[in-house]
Amino acid sequence: MKKETYNITGMSCAACQAAVTRAVEKLEGTDNVNVNLMQNKMTVELSDGLTDEMIIKAVTDAGYGANVLKKEKTAGKVNSTGVVEDFSEELKKRAVISFIFLIPLMYFGMGGMFNAPFPSTFMGDGGRLLLALTQLLLVIPIIFAGRKFFISGIKHLIKRSPNMDTLIAIGSGASFSYSLYSLYSLAYFISIGDMKSSMPFGMNLYFDSAGTILTLITLGKYLEARSKKKTTEAISKLVNLIPDKATVLKDGEEIQVPVSEVETGDIVVVKAGETVPVDGVIVSGNGAVDEAMVTGESIPVEKVAEDKVIGGTISRSGYFTFRATNVGEDTALYKIISLVEEAAGSKAPISRLADKISGVFVPAVLGIAFVTFISWLIIKGDFSFALNMAVAVLVISCPCALGLATPAAIMAGTGKGAEKGILIRTAESLEVAHKIDTVVLDKTGTITEGKPKVTDIFTNTVNEKELISLAAALESASSHPLANAIIEYAKEKNIEIKCAESLEMVEGRGIAGRVGEEVIFAGNEAYMKELGINENIYSGTAKKLHDLGKTVLYFAKGEAKKELLGIIAVADVIKEGSRQAVSELNLLGIDVVMLTGDNERTALAIGKETGVNRVVAGVKPADKEEQIRLLQENGKKVMMVGDGINDAPALARADIGVAIGTGADVAVDTADIILMHSDLRDVPYAIELSGEVVKKIKENLFWALFYNALCIPVAAGVFFAAFGLKLNPMIGALAMSFSSVFVLSNSLRLRLFKPKFKTGKVGVADSKEVEVVAVNVGTDEKIIKQEVVMEKIIDIEGMMCMHCVKHVTDALNKIDGVTAEVSLENKNAKVSLTKEVDGSLLKEAVEKGGYTVTAIH
User: Based on the number of CB atoms within 10 Å of its own CB, is 229 exposed (0-12), middle (13-18) or buried (19 or more)?
Assistant: First the structure.
């Protein structure tokens, strides 16, 4: 089966959408026919035996136009996106022309009811004929401006697939035809001198009704077209990120070419202020590139040779050339646009009710109008009254709002998500997301940064700067991730990395080498013991660091006599926003589970710091899918959040799979939602957005369905006998137009969506427990419950140097259940407690060393 997309022309309402769907579904070998009224497009899965010509013929036979959507590019602009074609200017002209003639038509048609002053020419028996002829002349331009309603409506009536235009054409056409009959009857009786017989015909002219119906429907269509255009602004903004031109190096010269002509391997030049046209890798030069479109990071990123650049990002400074690696449809931006378009064009399960109703709605309305006309003709014997009632039914029942109810909200919702960097692949996933009650988070690269960083430094005989310099010199010979963390830290702090010589690797233990005149050793606790170095002075600190899931590296120096220089703790740090995301999910009533292959100790530490409800530790990548299945078997609606690569089975198993990744990774086939900014805070945002979209769809469907259900009986005169209540066709036309505008305007309110919970900096609850389930650790599964860490800040006066910091740290760490991080710069200690500790004990421990505690908070 292949998937093909077609442009569909001639659709105006839900009945049209249903007719096209039925016509294509009749063909053997078609599957998943999806007709989108908002975008005037259709996607179909075809078997090998079906051709485009067969599909187009089926659509044409149903009374509509179709052509294959060609993915061509004009001047670099992708024109196959879901941007709705703008008919608003044409409709605006038609509406303006209609109103120019409608105003005098209303004056001549209804002025007499309000005692409006008329020229004497139009008074008397002869004046009645002139008045009728004047109304005829005024309504003709309005009918001409609205001729498309008649052309489309009659064509589809002949093809037995009546639509909204059919209802408008029959309604306004009946009013015009009956008025024309009355005009001729009026002229006839006046010509034979029978003025008495001519009077009723002069009173039964409905040229103004015909003109008003067409004018108001045209106005409604104009407002609808404008609203449709607004719903696609998010996609339009993405398309507009692609520049028209690119500067390419050809034979040493800079030549400007259309972006569509850039080929893989071309050398492209980007200057300050220019937009990167396609994806590539920098060959020479450097620049600061604004990647907010992809990463959400507002600060430009410095780019040098060998760095990747993404099309649509902007160079804020510098000059560089890059080799094009992905062009056209292969660029990250194009894939993003395609994903947003695909979601906007898909159908949510909730729309099935509207689809079923749409298929029979217009024929049912025609039947109701016919019964209304016959019934009132029999009851009152008044042709004019019966016609008015039937026309009111036709006009009030146009199913425009019904066809727009779901796609308008879906398009607005997916567009809002795209603005936030949340790419939602299907309407179904957007609808289901708000039902989630359990979110499962992968740890590495999702909750954490995915690479180790230096978190703690404790020095013994040297200062911090000297320790880092020596450590980085020794570790620069290693490619181990922990070594890279120390080197990166040294670079961040602008610490000189000295040169190390005579390096010797001790497998499983550490490394040794000469830095200047000193022999330096680096490694684990076991290595220090082998060297005969007393590491006991840091045993308590090291244990607490291990309990927090951190890796401790020891550093020593000396040949004959070896002494400990200090320790450096390295860990995969938690991403900014992860704690806030977990807190907001809990506020939404959602349980948060963390999956990790790490041991229980590390898992518990991360679980405590983030505030997740449950941690499953020791999970192999292949077993993550099973953990999702177990949750589902317990009746949970599960969202899995992972990196989209080794988590693919789990993402596919979950009710909603969410891939965390940058723009270069957006084409993750197994994910339902993609978070471009790699920010976990976008998860609760997506869930809340889903709930708001579903709310808007329900509001739209309620309005579209119940509005017609209430108005059709009124228009048919059901309440006329009891209450004298009837609906004027002109008011019906205004109300019908308003219903479509209401549905679109209601959907556009999603552009103002803001999440309910904005908790800012979130702390961890004092009494919350984290459940840790150890899987694949030993032979038996075991469950451990421990209290989440409580944090306190102690403000301290009197610390002058790193020795002071060490004294305060040791004093606090001696207290059972306490782990302290002391900062000389901030003049405070950050204390983590695994149990309740009285503040007076903390104060006493610090002040025994000669320091002053000014506050504990």
Answer: middle
| 442, 647, 672, 682: the active-site residue | 442
Q: What would the pLDDT profile of 647-703 be if each residue is shown by its tens digit?
A: 777 887 888 988 886 533 443 556 788 888 888 899 999 999 999 998 998 888 887
- How far is Cα 818 from Cα 813, in angstroms, rounded to an integer? 6
Give the span between the Cα atoms of 777 and 780, in whole angstroms: 7
Tokens 């002509």 sit on residue? 261
In 635-685 the beta strands, taken as DSSP E runs, fall at 638-642, 656-660, 673-675
What ranges make up the beta strands (E) of 559-655? 563-574, 591-595, 614-617, 638-642
Pairing of strands 591-595, 438-442: parallel
Please write the tens of the pLDDT for every residue from 634-656. Answer: 889 999 998 755 677 788 788 89
Separation CA 204–CA 582 (nearest Å): 70
Distance, in Å, from the CA atom of 215 to the CA atom of 734, rounded to the nearest integer, reads 9
Report the Cα 41 to chain-centroid distance in Å: 21
User: What is d(CA 817, CA 789) in angstroms, rounded to the nearest whole number?
Assistant: 10
Q: Is 442 considered catalytic here?
A: yes
Global pTM value: 0.66
Q: How many CB atoms lie within 10 A of CB 455?
A: 18
Nearest to 59, CA basis, from 39, 85, 41:
41
Report yes or no: 505 and 480 within 8 Å, Cβ to Cβ: no
Q: How many CB atoms lie within 10 A of CB 310?
A: 22
| Residue at 10: amino acid letter | G
Q: How far apart are CA 716 and CA 708, in angstroms?
A: 12
∠ CA 831-834-837, rounded to 5°: 65
Q: Inter-axis angle of helices 729-748 and 383-396, to 10 degrees?
A: 10
CB count in 10 Å sphere of residue 265: 10
Residue with tokens 């492209």: 268
User: End-to-end distance of the chain based on CA atoms, in angstroms?
Assistant: 64
Q: Contact, 520 vs 495, CB < 8 A? A: no
